[in-house]
Amino acid sequence: MKTSDFNYELPQELIAQDPLEDRSSSRLMTLDKNTGALEHHIFREIVEYLNPGDCLVINNTKVIPARLYGSKEGTEAKIEVLLLKRKENNIWETLVKPGKKCKVGTRISFGDGILTGEVVDVVDEGNRLIRFSYEGVFEEILDQLGQMPLPPYITHQLKDKNRYQTVYARYDGSAAAPTAGLHFTPKLLSQIREKGVNIAEVTLHVGLGTFRPVKVEDVTKHHMHSEFYVIEESQAELINKTRSSGGRIISVGTTSCRTLESASDENGVLHAGSGWTEIFIYPGYRFKLIDALITNFHLPESTLLMLVSALAGKEHIMAAYEEAVKDHYRFFSFGDAMFIH
């Protein structure tokens, strides 16, 4: 299976640069994974596709304002630091630009010294481990100094930080939003519950590897980035009960999907717990737990496009994407949605 098999032509103007004012007014394409049949809706109409007894699984991770701009101490050199994952209390694995100026021992000052960092190691792919020093609460300082780490294809400035968060975001830790969830509003979630649909929560802290292109032509040779997940006992019980009662498990986003598939056994039983997942789902994969998926439209040749192709079949997905381009759907993080059922 070749990476180039997952390429498609996308006009630049279809990449959504700004979120819609009303989250639930995005467009929704529905795709029958068995027949390839397509329908066009507004996202809030998703309620009509959910049945009493189904379980919607959402990822409650929260994006941290992980992009920091500082300067190298003793010089005027500007340094950009992107927090990737916390290794221990004040040491973070980071992506630093320009890396050449940040050897071990380099000190960086942010916000006139409110926050300082020292490069303590260089690790995989040139990422830097930085030990931060500050007074007070790190998260509060980050909120004051940091910017949302929007994907590289979004060039507009985000006016409201909360628009790159889901309305149910609870636990800090992501470097990117689980974007399928951006379409939900509190009102829409209430309507879903009123219909008798269960809503379960999992946590997967999304890493920037989400945007990393697949650089090998043989898909099976790609090494997936690892991400940390947590599934509480009560939520695993709710999901397992739904499945045993004949309800569908509907994953909101590829992150929820990867969490569920990582933590379930061959019999489709989900196990509570936490850990790191490097699961790479591409065509040929046999799904153990999820029945349906709400997702956005993904980048050409990306692992996310391969995941949705595994669920619905590559031919159906590529035909749906061709239709979405022709019909001027909005693509990627702030774009429109697809329901694969």
Explain briefly what this protein structure is.
With 341 residues, the chain is α/β, with parallel strands linked by helices. It is built from six helices and 17 strands.
Structural write-up:
A hairpin with a 5-residue loop joins strand 9 and strand 10 (128-134). By secondary structure, the protein is α/β, with parallel strands linked by helices. The mean pLDDT is 94. It folds into 2 domains: 3-63 and 160-340, QueA-like (3-Layer(aba) Sandwich), CATH 3.40.1780; 67-145, QueA-like (Thrombin, subunit H), CATH 2.40.10.240. It has helices at 138-145, 186-194, 233-244, 253-262, 303-312, 314-326, and strands spanning 27-31, 38-42, 55-59, 61-63, 67-72, 78-88, 91-97, 107-110, 115-122, 128-134, 171-174, 198-204, 227-231, 249-252, 273-277, 292-296, 337-340. The strands form 3 sheets. It has a 9-stranded mixed beta sheet with strand order 2-1-17-16-14-3-12-13-15. Strands 5-6-7-10-9-8 form a 6-stranded antiparallel β-barrel. A two-stranded parallel ribbon has the order 4-11.
